[in-house]
């Protein structure tokens, strides 16, 4: 996974998650210049990330001790193992179960590839989302299940805020000159008028 990005034209290449430890105010060298991340008409093409797949970078397989604390076994420092255990402990459904509930055809076992490695049963949700993106969208974007989860989480956050536009005026539709209300992309909002 690419881990350095330029956030400002001519700016330094910065690590996307330099230390994975907590939130703090954004420093001026980390203010996002959106045309570097999204294609905007009249600007050079945006930087491209690697495709989404089922592989984790070494930095997520071996999390720093500052994040994990002392562990009894090296495997416990792996984000993959932690996600598997958390998913099991919290009763998360499998990726296939979410796909079926959403009315989507689940990925076939050979598309996921875990059965060939001896994995029994259905796919952990986090891994399913990664494989779905790779198989259904060539790794360029999330697939149906991943998109549904992200969209529902964002709507839940917005709807949970009593001062959000959706809460204050549920009938409001964003609009841009010359566009049908609600029918535009984030890039449209960033493009010069």
If you had to describe this structure to a student in words, what would you say it looks like?
The protein has helices at 58-61, 65-68, 79-90, 95-101, 109-112, 125-137, 144-159, 165-168, 186-190; strands spanning 4-6, 13-15. The model has no long low-confidence stretch (mean pLDDT 83). 12% of the residues are buried. The two termini are 35 Å apart. The protein has a two-stranded antiparallel ribbon. The protein has nine helices and two strands. It folds into two domains: 1-50, no CATH class; 53-170, no CATH class. The protein is globular and about 55 Å long. It has 193 residues and is mainly alpha-helical.
Give the strand order, joined by hyphens, for the main sheet: 1-2
**Structural class based on helices, strands and sheet pairing:** mainly alpha
Rg, nearest Å: 20 Å
The portion of residues forming beta strands comes to under 5%
Write down the domain tally: 2
What can be said about the biggest beta sheet?
2 strands, antiparallel
């Amino acid at each position: 996974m690419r881990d350095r990005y330029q956030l400002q034209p001519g700016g330094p290449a910065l690590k996307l998650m330099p230390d994975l430890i907590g939130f703090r105010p954004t420093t001026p060298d980390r203010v996002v210049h959106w045309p570097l991340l999204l294609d905007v008409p009249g600007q050079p093409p945006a930087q491209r990330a690697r495709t989404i797949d089922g592989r984790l970078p070494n930095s997520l397989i071996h999390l720093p001790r500052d994040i994990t604390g002392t562990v009894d076994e090296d495997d416990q420092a792996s984000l993959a193992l932690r996600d598997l255990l958390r998913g099991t402990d919290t009763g998360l459904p499998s990726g296939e179960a979410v796909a079926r509930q959403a009315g989507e055809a689940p990925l076939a076992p050979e598309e996921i590839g875990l059965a060939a490695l001896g994995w029994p049963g259905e796919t952990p949700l986090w891994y399913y989302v990664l494989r779905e993106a790779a198989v259904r969208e060539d790794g360029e974007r999330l697939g149906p299940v991943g998109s549904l989860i992200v969209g529902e989480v964002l709507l839940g956050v917005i709807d949970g805020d009593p001062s959000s536009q959706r809460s204050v005026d549920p009938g409001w539709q964003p609009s841009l000159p010359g566009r049908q209300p609600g029918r535009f992309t984030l890039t449209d909002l960033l493009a010069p008028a």
